[in-house]
UniProtKB/TrEMBL annotation, chain A:
It comes from Marinomonas fungiae. Belongs to the TrpB family. NCBIfam families: trpB. It catalyses: (1S,2R)-1-C-(indol-3-yl)glycerol 3-phosphate + L-serine = D-glyceraldehyde 3-phosphate + L-tryptophan + H2O. The beta subunit is responsible for the synthesis of L-tryptophan from indole and L-serine. PANTHER family: TRYPTOPHAN SYNTHASE, TRYPTOPHAN SYNTHASE-RELATED. The modification N6-(pyridoxal phosphate)lysine is found at K87. This is Tryptophan synthase beta chain. Gene3D superfamilies: 3.40.50.1100.
From TrEMBL, chain B:
It comes from Marinomonas fungiae. This is Tryptophan synthase alpha chain. InterPro entries: Aldolase_TIM, RibuloseP-bd_barrel, Trp_synthase_alpha_AS, Trp_synthase_suA. Keywords: Amino-acid biosynthesis, Aromatic amino acid biosynthesis, Lyase, Tryptophan biosynthesis. The gene is trpA. Pathway: Amino-acid biosynthesis; L-tryptophan biosynthesis; L-tryptophan from chorismate: step 5/5. NCBIfam families: trpA (TIGR00262). CDD domains: Tryptophan_synthase_alpha. It is an enzyme of class 4 (lyase). Belongs to the TrpA family. Tetramer of two alpha and two beta chains. It catalyses: (1S,2R)-1-C-(indol-3-yl)glycerol 3-phosphate + L-serine = D-glyceraldehyde 3-phosphate + L-tryptophan + H2O. The active site is at E49, D60. One of its GO terms (cellular component) is cytosol. The lineage of its organism: Bacteria, Pseudomonadati, Pseudomonadota, Gammaproteobacteria, Oceanospirillales. The alpha subunit is responsible for the aldol cleavage of indoleglycerol phosphate to indole and glyceraldehyde 3-phosphate.
Length: 421, 261
């Protein structure tokens, strides 16, 4: 979606410290040039295909469709990307742009760790130095991702400021960029931040919706009636929705994290129920969860990738216009939706993507049998194994963890003894 | 002429360089922060740059970030009370001036027009918002023009030459020259950079407004190096580091060593 000088209605813009002006302008121009350069687009498509496995399938879910007895349910399988999530589409695009700009280092923020891993993967492949900022709380919650980032050669910096989650990681990444802008690129993971980041990330993610257009025509001869996507920062939703903007008969539904309840601090609902208010922070104007004095507030979701305090200015604008309908799913509904997909279709969804499932499952039984809905399965759930086991109250998991830990420690002490001998 | 620029010009008749000391409002408590500001003014500070805390201060380094988060941790701070408090401080020390620094969001929520009007009423004549670039500040500039308050623009060593010339020519009360890349506080930046002298000489070519220099000023030599080239030395993180280490006494010792030695 083309912005109006960086704005989408009243949202977006570029509110950054003066020190970043030149770097921001450099990205603006490099992106404008690159997206109109057939050689760049060809390299992008080649890397998407041969490194990340695109195009991803559009999978018809017969069992789920029969189960609900309403709309025909399709999943867009972004979980099958290299790295296991749609994040890969964007990091490939931006990393190729980094090479084009001649920079040697990338900085990224990460919440759940998916964007951090994706960035570390592409940095390893393209020979870029890589520093990932991650809230100290998220480092604890998502340690397997931290492990992989380190193995891939990235430096992971736990951010102990503030609430120690995604928003603090983003602040810290901006601070790094302020002192390293000459040789570093801030590889933001979602459709947020100062212009041109929302537009650029949406451009790289729009491959999702473009593929759905082709695949739906090929599989059932028309566009879907409805699209569903979870909305954290908004990148997978932008990716699925934006190519369909002009198709007025296609309805779009964004699903935010309802968390544990609608009190401030218990959820990440910014775009419905009057819970978010317009603000300007972290480089752009959007709807933020904040108090009456303009201080940004803590958020919660069972899915670390959705508990962001702001939201894409593109989604905020389209929601305000009524083009996207916003809804939310609670933590427990999300776990139920995840369990249902496992049992019915043999697919393990990420908890983030399970929000989109939960939102769609509420509507599916009430929709006509001939209608078709596409749900964006933005990522796979392997990374969530610990959290899902806990949420499902699996009683046997702790035994496994204890045994594994004992074995692990024994292994370490044996190796240490050998080292000393 | 801007009231603020006039104040600086008059004071500069008596002093080779003026001092602007930065204090975070509400840190460690509102009372203690106001008390610390008064102490600095008694010691002869020419300006206090009062930072109204924001939860996400992206242009600040660890020292000031920690103070902002500390100030917001267990108390509710309002812009209105802050303006009343520092307005009173200004009336108690009429020989000095107060500038307000914050990030855009708390000010935006309070209302930019109301903010500028209230600043004028409280004789707070300079407004520093590091995440509000000139291009995005159309409304704020109008309100400021109407009420005689000066928005303070920042320039940096990596600001492109034509932009530097433009921002310098737009400066009224004073121009805030960031001395180096990075956030406030101790620097780990080691990129190539033109000398501070050349940078300030270039800025002087383009502006009639006074020049303030901040970021990384921690020693007397840093302040002395600005004499004859700038009008105001801005000291923030170093002062807060000293205050954190040994309270007002240690902070005052640093202030005196920089400006009264």
């Amino acid at each position: 979606m083309q912005s109006n000088n960086g704005y989408y209605g009243e949202f977006g813009g570029s509110y950054i410290p003066e020190i970043l002006y030149s770097s921001q302008q450099q990205i603006l121009h490099a992106f404008e040039e690159a997206k109109n350069d057939p050689a760049f687009i060809a390299e992008l498509k080649d890397t998407w295909q041969n490194y990340s496995g695109r195009p991803t399938p559009l999978t018809f879910c017969k069992n789920l469709t029969d189960h609900f007895g309403g709309a025909q349910i399709y999943l867009k399988r972004e979980d099958l990307n290299q790295s296991g999530a749609h994040k890969m589409n964007n990091v490939i695009g931006q990393a190729l742009l980094v090479k084009r700009m001649g920079k040697k280092r990338v900085i990224a923020e990460t919440g759940a760790g998916q964007h951090g891993v994706a960035t570390a993967l592409i940095a390893a492949r393209l020979g870029l130095e890589c520093t990932i900022y991650m809230g100290a709380k998220d480092v604890k919650r998502q340690y397997p991702n931290v492990f992989w980032m380190k193995q891939l050669g990235a430096t992971v910096v736990p951010v102990a400021e503030g609430a120690q989650t995604l928003r603090d990681a983003l602040d810290e990444a901006l601070r790094d960029w302020s002192s390293s802008h000459e040789d570093s690129h801030y590889l933001i993971g979602t459709t947020c931040g100062c212009a041109p980041f929302p537009e650029m990330v949406a451009f790289f993610q729009s491959v999702i919706g473009e593929e759905v257009k082709e695949q739906s025509m090929a599989q059932f001869g028309q566009y879907p009636d409805r699209l569903y996507a979870c909305v954290g920062g908004g990148s997978n939703a932008c990716g699925l929705f934006l190519p369909f903007l002009e198709e007025k008969e296609v309805e779009m539904f964004g699903v935010e994290a309802g968390g544990k309840g609608l009190e401030l601090g218990q959820h990440s609902i910014r775009l419905s129920n009057g819970l978010g208010q317009k603000g300007i922070a972290q480089g752009f104007a959007t709807m933020f969860l904040q108090d009456e004095n303009g201080q940004l507030q803590e958020t919660h979701s069972i899915a670390a990738g959705l508990d962001y305090v702001g939201v894409s200015p593109i989604i905020a604008h389209l929601a305000q216009e009524g083009r996207i309908q916003m809804t939310y799913a609670m933590d427990d509904e999300v776990v139920e939706a995840c369990a249902l997909l496992l049992k019915k279709e043999g697919i393990i969804p990420a908890l983030e993507s399970s929000h989109a499932l939960a939102g769609a499952f509420k509507d599916a039984p009430n929709l006509p049998k001939e209608s078709r809905i596409v749900i964006n399965l933005s990522g796979r759930g392997d990374k969530d194994i610990f959290n899902i086991a806990k949420a499902m109250n699996d009683a046997t998991f702790p035994d496994f963890l204890e045994d594994y830990l004992a074995d692990y420690n024994e292994h370490l002490s044996e190796n240490n003894n050998q080292g000393e001998a | 002429m801007s009231q603020l620029a006039q104040y600086i010009a008059e004071k500069r008749q008596q002093k080779p360089i003026l001092s602007m000391t930065h204090v975070v409002y509400g840190y460690p408590s509102v009372k203690e922060s106001l008390d610390w500001m008064a102490t600095l003014l008694e010691a002869g500070a020419d300006f206090i740059e009062v930072q109204f805390p924001f939860s996400d201060p992206v242009a600040d380094g660890p020292t000031i970030v920690a103070a902002c988060h500390g100030a917001l941790h267990d108390q509710t701070l309002t812009v209105e009370q802050c303006l009343k408090d520092i307005g009173q401080l200004g009336r108690d020390f009429p020989q000095a001036r107060i500038a307000l620094m914050s990030y855009l969001n708390p000010m935006y929520r309070y209302g930019l027009e109301k903010l500028v009007k209230r600043c004028a009423e409280e004789n707070i004549l300079g407004l520093i918002l590091p995440d509000l670039p000139y291009e995005q500040a159309g409304e704020l500039r109008e309100y400021c023009n109407a009420h005689g308050v000066d928005p303070v623009w920042l320039v940096t060593p990596v600001t492109p030459k034509d932009r530097l010339a433009f921002l310098a020519s737009e400066a009224r009360g004073f121009l805030y020259c960031v001395a180096r890349s990075g956030v406030t506080g101790n620097s780990n930046h080691n990129g190539k950079q033109q000398s501070l002298d050349d940078y300030l000489a270039e800025i002087n070519e383009h502006t009639n407004a006074p020049i303030g220099v901040g970021f990384g000023i921690r020693e007397k030599a840093h302040v002395d190096a600005l004499k004859g080239k700038a009008d105001v030395a801005i000291i923030g993180s170093a002062l807060l580091d000293a205050y954190n280490k040994g309270g007002k006494e240690e902070g005052l010792k640093l202030f005196n060593s920089l400006f009264n030695a």
